[in-house]
Amino acid sequence: MTINEKTTDLVYAAIDDLNRQRDPSQLIEKSLDTVLTGSSSKLDSLGLVTFIVSVEEKIDEIFNRLITLTNFDFIQNSNDESLTVGSLIGYITKKIDNNDGD
Amino acid sequence: MMVTDNKINCLLISDFTIDNLSGLLANDSDFPLMDIRSAPFDQVIPTLLDKSSPCWKPNPECVLIWTRPERIIKSYQRVLEYEEISVLELLKEVDKFASLICGIAEQCKIVLIPSWTLPTFNRGLGMTDMNPVSGLENILIQMNLRLSERLSSTSNIFMLNTQRWIFNAGKFACNPKLWYMGKIPFNNNVFQEAVADIKAALRGIHGQSRKMIITDLDDTLWGGIVGEEGYQNLILGGHNPVGEAYIDYQKALKSLTKRGILLGIVSKNNEDTALEAINKHPEMKISLDDFVGWKINWNDKAQNICELVEELNLGLQSIVFIDDNPVERDRVRAALPEIYVPDWPADPMLYVSTLQSLNCFDKPTHSDEDAARTNMYKADRIRKNLKQSLTSVEDWLKSLEIKIQVESLNKINIERTTQLLNKTNQMNMSTRRLTESELLKWTEQKQNRLWVLRVSDKFGDSGLTGIVSCEIKNQEAIVVDFILSCRVMGRKIEETMLHIITDFAQSEGLSKITATPIKTEKNRPCQEFFKKSIFIFDPNTNSYNWETDKTYSLPECITLQYK
Predict the structure, then answer these.
(1) Residue B324 belongs to what domain range?
(2) Residues in B lying within 8 Å of A, measured between beta carbons
(3) Which of A46, A56, A57 sits opposite B17 (nearest CB)?
(4) Do B54 and B87 sit in the same domain of this protein?
(5) Which candidate in A20, B264, B347, B379 could, as Cys together with B459 as Cys, close a disulfide (CB 3.0–4.6 Å)?
(6) How far is CA B380 from the centre of its chain?
(7) pLDDT tier at B174 (50, 70, 90 boundaries)?
(8) Are residues B463 and B403 in the same domain?
(9) Residue A75: what pLDDT?
């Protein structure tokens, strides 16, 4: 599996975990286009925090790497609609590819 | 607690953000389903004090109170800051909190309290952290013990072991990021472990815990195929790690019998060969006396399980089936979906840990009857052998010399009575479920009567195995509970219960007894008993009636004694 494929799997696994605690009418779709922040996102701030921290934990588990996602603008400023599942996967893949970490 | 398909209404009270647990509980599809609501964030004490708060309406059946020790016990915050404190004073704070919890226990059917924990990353004083006057962990242990002790006198409060959830959740169990960003002290793995334990507790209270393990033999109870290798060559004990693991697995199974879990065998083998191994292998830790029954032959295992379960008067929903062979497990799962067939590891060194991690045996109380259950079933096997040797059922019943002692509900028998009330499914007319305090309240009402029955015979004491109760209304005795353990069904105890209630009604000058069995998935034996009884069926009301101008005789084979 490529790094991108592994990352996609772990992000989707985090979505599964998140959906287990969400109202069935508010499930997050496992799609690259799913918007995670801003007014069109189904996630409130608590849901976003839970999801992002879960993704960090899974990165550590799969890649044995600490990559901090929680201090980014998209967490601090959740009105920004630029963060999608696809862009998050791209960001993580690039960090791991470049051997960037904390 | 009524057993219905309805959801259990649960209130979560916490001093941290508990939405994640709330969502997981609400979405979990295992029995019982739950409706969840949460008290306002970090308002634990006001919520416990103010029962008029909207979160108490409607009255919750279940309340879960999950607090952080440093938040709810102020002195513990000082302990965390390495201040000198009086442990006695700190424990008094714990007592006050315990009193508040006991105060709400009357308002709901069950209260669950996750024990207090420290975040995994806090190593406190390190080498002196177990010091009893300053160690963070030691003082926390004392607080948990004190809380547990203070709550133990209230029968519907249960402390749950949070430490195990955290341990199972892995290294991010107490992820500080969740705390800083969301005031969530635990990650979702911890909450998922909590959900599993909360559901197991509720199933136990609903009488849905499993009662029996049926195990395979070859490569399950011992290593190797006894029919091919002979019992002398089995892997069991010796200076062999796998042999030791099988020994420990046998010991673990055997120890479960002291918790009231029955053991049985279903195995594809020649019976003589398999029994010879159990009887003669010098390191066998489990004996035939530990098993209440077995089916060792070459028939389909699902069929064998059904036959064994029927012989023991148990329901399939009471059974756990353990087999090393995934094909056999799949077969039993597919044929008998009510049976719990856990995934079983290929490595025998993981058998004990897998067995001990099963959460399907949880029960709210443990009685003397639990410890004696295997012996009771063994005595039953002897009774059945006697039955086959005698020509008529009447002769067999007379030969048993059955004695029944009737008691009112009292402090000594209430725990076992509540256990029987809540776990009996087959011979149970109304299947109502109540906590100890609810049952006590019910019996204290002057129009209600309840009797419990202890049954013994020449082969042994079956213990407290029957409950019959009624409500007096308009000169009638309306039967409310008609409950008999499957261990003693079919020995005229049922008829004796009807005699007890008709005798009571006559002595009180009541005109009639009415019993209306409520049909459930599992109480067919009760329906059948009433159909065959000499009570008169009224199709208009679906009830069975008895006019007290006629005497309902005590069965001849029974000696009845009122205590």
Answers:
(1) 212-356
(2) 17, 19-24, 26-27, 172, 175, 177-178, 181-182, 184, 187-188, 191-192
(3) A46
(4) yes
(5) B379
(6) 22
(7) very high
(8) yes
(9) 61
A102: chain B residues, CB-CB within 8 Å: none
- Nearest 10 degrees: Cα torsion B411, B105, B190, A56: 180
Q: Is B23 close to A75, i.e. CB distance below 8 A? A: no
Q: Which residues of B touch A74 (CB under 8 A)?
A: none
Give dist(CA A11, CA B499) in Å, integer. 67
* pLDDT value at B1 more than 60: no
Closest residue in B to A46 (Cα) is B182
Contact B27 A22 (CB under 8 A): yes
Nearest chain A Cα distance for residue B53, angstroms: 25
Per DSSP (E only), the strands in B98-240 are 110-114, 157-160, 212-215
The predicted structure's pLDDT at residue B3: 36
B115-133 pLDDT per residue, tens: 999 999 999 999 999 999 9
Tell me which residue in A57, A60, A70 faces B181 most closely, judged by beta carbons: A70
Contact: A46, B19; criterion CB under 8 Å: yes
| pLDDT(A102) > 70 | no
To the nearest whole Å, the CA of A44 is away from the closest chain B CA by 11
Residues B54 and B197 in one domain: yes
Residues B250 and B166 in one domain: no
Is residue B336 located within the same domain as residue B238? yes
A53 contacts B178? CB cut-off 8 A: yes
Chain B residues with CB-CB distance to A57 below 8 A: 172, 175, 187
Contact criterion met (CB < 8 Å) for A50 and B22: no
**Domain assignment of residue B379, yes or no:** no
Query: Looking at the structure, do residues B550 and B412 belong to the same domain, yes or no?
Result: yes
Are B246 and B295 in contact, with CB atoms under 8 Å apart?
no
Domain boundary among the residues B329, B356, B383 is at B356
- Examine the domain organization and report whether B346 and B458 are in the same domain: no
User: For residue range B236-250, what is the model confidence (pLDDT) as tens digits?
Assistant: 998 899 999 999 999
Residue B16 confidence (pLDDT): 97
Domain termination residue (choose one: B183, B205, B227): B205
- For B79, B124, B133, B213, the CA distances from B137, given in Å and listed in that order, are 10, 7, 10, 38
Domain range list for chain A: 3-20+33-97
Give whole-number Cα distances, A89 to A17, A55, A76, B50, B508, in Å: 17, 10, 19, 48, 78
- Contact yes or no for B184 and A50 at CB 8 A: yes
Of B387, B381, B367, B384, nearest to B452 by C-alpha is B367
| Closest B-chain CA to A58 | B172
Identify the band that residue B4 occupies on the pLDDT scale cut at 50, 70 and 90: very low
Q: What is the ipTM of this complex?
A: 0.91
> Do B315 and B439 lie in a common domain?
no
pLDDT above 70 for A28: yes
Closest CA to B233 of B182, B180, B283: B283
Q: How far, in Å, are A84, A93, B275 from residue A69 at the CA level?
A: 14, 13, 62
User: Across chain B, how many H-helices and E-strands are there?
Assistant: 21, 18
CATH of the domain at B236: 3.40.50.1000
> B192 contacts in A (CB within 8 Å)?
20
B528 within domain boundaries: yes
Q: Is residue B494 part of a domain?
A: yes
Q: How many domains does chain B have?
A: 3
pLDDT value at position A74?
A: 58
In a domain, B365, yes or no: no
